Amino acid sequence: MLNKYPLWKNLFLIVVALLSAIYAAPNFYQPDPAIQISHDDGVMDQAALGMATDALKQDGIEFFDPEIGKNGVALIRLRDKNQQSRAQQIVNLKMPQNYIVALNLAPTTPAWLEKLHAGPMAYGLDLQGGVHFLMEVDMNEATTKQLNDTIASMRNELRDEKIRYRPPITLDAQKRINIRLLDAATRSTAIGKLKGKFPDLVMNTLEVGDDFIVQYSMSPASILELQKYAVQQNLTTLRARVNELGVKEPKIQQMGANRIIIELPGIQDTTRAKDLISAVATLQFHLVAESGAAPNTTREYLYNGAPVKVNQDVIMGGSNVTGAQSSIDSSDSLPQVNITLDSVGAKKLNDVTRVSVGKKMAIILSETKTRSVTKAQADGSLVTTSEPTVDERAISVATIQSALGRQFRITGLGSAEANDLSLLIRSGALAAPMHFVEESTIGPSLGQENINNGVNSVLLGLGLLVVFIVGYYRISGIAAVIALFCNLLLMMAIMSIVGWTLTMPGITGIVLTLGIAVDANVLIFARIREEIENGMSIPRAINAGYERAFVTIVDANVTTLIVSVILFAIGSGPIKGFAVTLTLGLLTSMFTAYMYSRAIINLIYGGNNVKSISIGTNIHLASNAVHE
């Protein structure tokens, strides 16, 4: 029979429809606005959770189902999404500084759907909300860091050339390096040796008392070049760190000479994201100072609660680290970070450790982070600001057993600390610290409003299409409408499974896709009517209509598909969001308009003895067509 699908094809379409409905279903369960609370060391107890809920009660903020998850993070769901920011500030004000309070969206997907790994689509910043940061690169600190590295190199160069100078080599407030030498002849020798090593520095000489001083400073051109490098390196590093966070469709771009815009949609732990974005984590390797070392040549740190003094001279810095991966030590099941060095760093470390067997080496971790601090103003309002904190500590002090090579490991870290340290090292070090100039949180209320507007536009467009199609094509129009709903479910399911991000422009693409899907059915029905009017029997007309219209549908959609793929490949932001849903929609609409529409038409008008078909007007076969 012409218009009958085999059993396997019907079963296939039913299974696809059921799976589409299942994996699209989580999108209809709206998340609850919530705040999450975590502790610096990862431990959250019921007493701390009670402190947070008491603060919310005192402020009159309604909440429900406070709980501590398996990951040690507390989650408090709120009744009113408009109170989310206020709740964060209230809890942040009452809790000690070692607790981190962040906005969150608590999922409400049923457990049985989660067991099937079904989850909602990822939403963009315009729909789900997120955070917007405007950050400024600290060029003063970048210049200081560069000159301090230069001082270390100069110190090593003078030592290698056996040129005596009066330590220490200093950096004054005007960012000038000052080297004090014993006499004019020694100064001339030092200038000659350093000139070839540091050609970009501006040199000046002067005498102060018995000191013959040579000064070095960076030229304006060098400072400008450093600024460009710092901004570009920070952009690269930030993109790598955001990728590690798994944020969908982030926006990271330069604004002006030394500012960077960062927009992160839908992140759940804003505080951790903020810390990882702005953190300046550097590793430095020092030999532990021997007893009797001069105070001005050492620095003191705490290691396991006890003070340890290290030499100021840096064996090797974090810039020589090319790889880091956290893992578990097989011998004691404790976290560790496996470090890989470049060839320069490996040589430096090998040269020092080869002649220092039996001595101790310390690894110093320096981290610059920001912390949100909420303070009550005189008028009773709450203001949250970001304050930078610098933490320097020894994370490893070990005896050198043998010369070290390109790979070694750092132990003695907590699990979360090992993961964060490896992430920061993998993503690269920031060339210069950054501070937050502007920070804003786009809350779920704005996102929900946009989602509602987008959903309403889809429903309005869909409703108008249904009215038109059913009103004009009657029963055949109902088949087209069912195929249209199958198309929408299939798109939602695929986007949910793959993890593509839905944005407002993406919703525009969905509305356009619905129109394209209806257009395909219009072509098919027009072809069927044309064949019937030419005297063909209804069964043959249905078969010819689908077969011949399919070629036209493919031709029309392929040209649009090529354009949408190009938009997806070269576009960004809103353009990419539009291209994602348009590309997917073109593919699913061709499938559903042909397969599902025909399956329903086959169900209604299958067989060889059909005398009429409702396809705009009731069309009856002429008597001479019955015996065709």
Number of strands: 25
Give the termini separation.
15 Å
State the CATH class of the largest domain.
Mainly Alpha
Tell the overall outline.
elongated
Mean of the pLDDT scores? Answer: 81
CATH homologous superfamily of the largest domain, by name?
Multidrug efflux transporter AcrB transmembrane domain
Strand order of the largest sheet: 2-3-1-4
Which percent bin holds the helix content? 40-55%
Secondary-structure-based class equals alpha+beta
How is the biggest beta sheet arranged?
Answer: 4 strands, antiparallel
Descriptive overview:
The chain has 628 residues and is of the alpha+beta class. It folds into 4 domains: 7-25 and 444-626, Multidrug efflux transporter AcrB transmembrane fold; 32-106, ACT domain (Alpha-Beta Plaits, 2-Layer Sandwich); 140-222, 2-Layer Sandwich (Ribosomal Protein S8, Chain: A, domain 1), CATH 3.30.1370; 283-411, Gyrase A, domain 2 (2-Layer Sandwich). Helices cover 48% and strands 27% of the residues. The protein contains 16 helices and 25 strands. Strands 2-3-1-4 form a 4-stranded antiparallel beta sheet. Helix 2 (46-58) crosses helix 3, helix 8 crosses helix 11 (415-427) and helix 13 runs parallel beside helix 15. It is elongated. The relative contact order is 0.11.
